[in-house]
Amino acid sequence: HYGDVTDSLMIINLIRKVKPNEIYNLSAQSHVAVSFQIPEYTANVDALGCLRILEAIKSLNLTKKIKFYQAGTSEMFGKVQEVPQTEKTPFYPRSPYGVAKVYGYWITINYRESYDIFACNGILFNHESPLRGLEFVTRKITDGVARIKLGIQNELLLGNLEAKRDWGFAGDFVHAMWLMLQTDKPDDYVIATGEQHSVRDFCEIAFGTVGLNLEDYVGVDPRFYRPAEVETLLGDPGKAKTELGWEPQVTFEQLVTMMVEEDIKRIEREIKLES
Ligand code: F7E
């Protein structure tokens, strides 16, 4: 089905047609840096998009039939007020993206409390995989490492190398989303690994997996700096562990290695096809 969360009628018609029992709202303009350039569009999709789905569920009288998952984000913590961040840590978003997601978070709670919808917020920290878009730092690095290793690129230009993130494997995190909708009572959960690494650490391991040294290839280009940066994020997944029985399975090193290996395989296939 085609769709767009800026189109209310389409959402209503699609729900009527598909009759889902679970809706996972992952729709977003999800790039933090881009949200500074298109803030109004980001708010329309990321904040009002969530409201439109909730309002569709309510106006179709399906509040008892559909469970709803809202993709919250660690970007809501932004300039962190506490370390590590838990479900109780106050938000301080640092981008139009983060601000729009705070609206999505609260409107989800508001519809849960006002209309008794089974609605949950997952507050997911960064989650990565070989499917990650090339505009995000992890995939930009692993794709760059693969190209450098295969001799088709000779440098990798990045922004803030000191930013620290709690990076996990997307497959593990999607499992947590599903678990949230299988509980008896809707609630909100931080999903994170509880481990933190810098962009520089990520580069070091990624270059290390192919026997190269990051210092020989990585340069800093201020074009990739953000007007306001989120310097450090570290989640406490304790509640998800106790209440959902969820724990991440893939380690940071395994994640980086998996992403580099997949990029090397993909680029080797592309080179073969071209020759
Ligand atoms: O940046 C720094 C950048 O764009 C991570 C989204 O899925 O996760 C993601 O948001 C860090 C930042 O992800 C480059 O300044 C350095 O500090 O990979 P990112 P993000 O902004 O953390 C959260 C949880 C979401 O919800 C978002 O939707 O890396 N950085 N150099 C760079 N970032 C990029 N993109 N490109 C660089 O060259």
Describe this structure in words.
The protein has helices at 8-18, 32-37, 39-59, 96-115, 137-149, 170-180, 199-209, 238-244, 252-274, and strands at 22-25, 67-73, 118-124, 127-128, 156-158, 164-165, 168-169, 188-191, 197-198, 218-220. The longest helix is centred in the last third of the chain and has 23 residues, at 252-274. α1 crosses α3, α5 (137-149) crosses α9 and α7 (199-209) packs across α9. With 275 residues, the chain is α/β, with parallel strands linked by helices. The strands form four sheets. A four-stranded parallel sheet has the order 1-2-3-8, with helices on both faces. β2 (67-73), α4 (96-115) and β3 form a beta-alpha-beta unit. It is built from nine helices and ten strands. Ligand F7E is lined by residues 30, 32, 73-75, 125-126, 135-138, 140, 158-160, 163, 165, 199, 224, 226, 229-230. Residues 30, 32, 73-75, 125-126, 135-138, 140, 158-160, 163, 165, 199, 224, 226, 229-230 line the site of ligand F7E.
End-to-end gap: 37 Å
Mean pLDDT: 98
**Residues in helices, as a percent range:** 40-55%
Major pleated sheet: 4 strands, parallel
The succession of helices and strands, N to C, reads HEHHEHEEHEEEHEEHEHH
Strand order of the largest sheet: 1-2-3-8
The counted number of beta strands is: 10
The radius of gyration over CA amounts to 20 Å
**Uncertain residue ranges:** none
Bound molecules: ligand F7E
Strand % is: 5-15%
